[in-house]
Structure formats: structure tokens, C-alpha cells
Amino acid sequence: MRKEVKISIAIVEPSDIIFEGLQLFLNKTNKQIQVSRFENICTLLEIVENEPFHILILNPYFAQAEKNQFHRLQQKCSNSHFVAIVYQYYPKEIIRLFDDKISITDDFATFSSFIHKLVDSIANIHEGSTAEALSEREKEVLIHIASGLSNKEIADKLCISIHTVISHRKKITEKTGIKSRSGLTIYAISNKLISIEHSFYR
């Protein structure tokens, strides 16, 4: 039986209305979520070393207006998952600084599905020590999956058949308990198989 993992989430959002809406959705989505609010990156930076967070949900404004502080936060929270909360236009180069994005226009079903997948991925990472170890070939396939390659591209890279790639992917999912590409990417990054810069999030 899976041990429940308490997922800690930091929200950096100046708007009370946006924060309260996010908090309501998060609390309805999963009871194992603990939410903390910060009005800016500076206040978050003061505590992240002693109180790390699994997920950081930020208004993209901070990545644009406080680039140096945001970069420091990324360095200090290299194992955290950065999510942009979008409710106005931001350039693609700003959104690409995040691992994922959610929109204020998302309905609860969409938001809930996203959070559940993310929480499951984090929980599976925490179970990594008890999961069956991946073979070297499976690690190679996982690295290419996390880099955004298709099954055919992976097959060409490793000089194997597409059927063999699919078989390896099935075994990776069985061993990690993770199905989605984003979840497998988080797993690969957390297990030092690939860096964020070389993942398909780039």
C-alpha cells in the first residue's frame, strides 16, 4: 500500500482573489496538500532552504520583473516543480522558464486532473527507493522520453525497433508507477538522469 505523502505547495501571488481561488481548488483536489502563500519571491527565498516545497505556483510577473530573484529561486529549489498561474499574456520565453502552466480559465476538472497527475508523480518519486531499479537500457529510453523524443526517434537513436521501445516504456511505467511524459520527466530529473535544461520543458 502506498504511503501518503504530504505535498507542500508555495503560491507566490499578490492577488487575494486569485490565491483564494487556487487554495479552494487545491483543497478540493487533494487532502494531502499543504498550501503556503507568499506575496513575493524575496519572502519565499528566506525560508526555502529550511522549508523546501514540492510545488511552486507563481505569477509569471515575478519571472519577468524579478529575473535575478527568480533565477536564485530556481537554483535553491532545483528539485521543486515550477508552475505558472496565467491570467494575462506573457511572452513564450517567460512561460518556458516554468515546468508547467495552469490558467485561471481552467475548469475544476482540468485543474484537478493536472494536480492529481503532478501529486502522483511526486509520490512515486518519494517511493523511488522501494521501486524496482531500471535497467541501463530503460534509463537510456527514459532519458530520451524526458528529452521529448517520439518512439520512432528513440528507436532510431538506439538502433532498436519501435516495438522494443514500446516494451521498454511499458516496463518503465510498471517499475516507476508513472505513465505521463511529464511525470517521467520529473522522475528522470529527480534521479539525476537528466537536467531541466535538457528536458522537453526547455
How would you characterize the overall build of this protein?
This protein is of the alpha/beta class. Helices cover 50% and strands 13% of the residues. It has helices at residues 16-29, 41-45, 61-65, 67-76, 92-95, 108-126, 136-146, 151-158, 162-176, 181-190, and strands spanning 7-12, 33-38, 55-58, 81-86, 100-103. It has a 5-stranded parallel sheet. Strand 4, helix 5 (92-95) and strand 5 (100-103) form a beta-alpha-beta unit. The model has no long low-confidence stretch (mean pLDDT 84).
Query: What is the fourth-level CATH superfamily of the largest domain?
Result: Response regulator
The total number of structural domains is 2
Structural class: alpha/beta
Proportion of residues in helical segments = 40-55%
The mean pLDDT is 84
Number of helices: 10
Sum up the overall morphology in one term. Answer: globular
Top-tier CATH class of the largest domain: Alpha Beta
Report the biggest beta sheet as strand number plus sense, adding barrel if it closes.
Answer: 5 strands, parallel
Terminal-residue CA separation: 35 Å
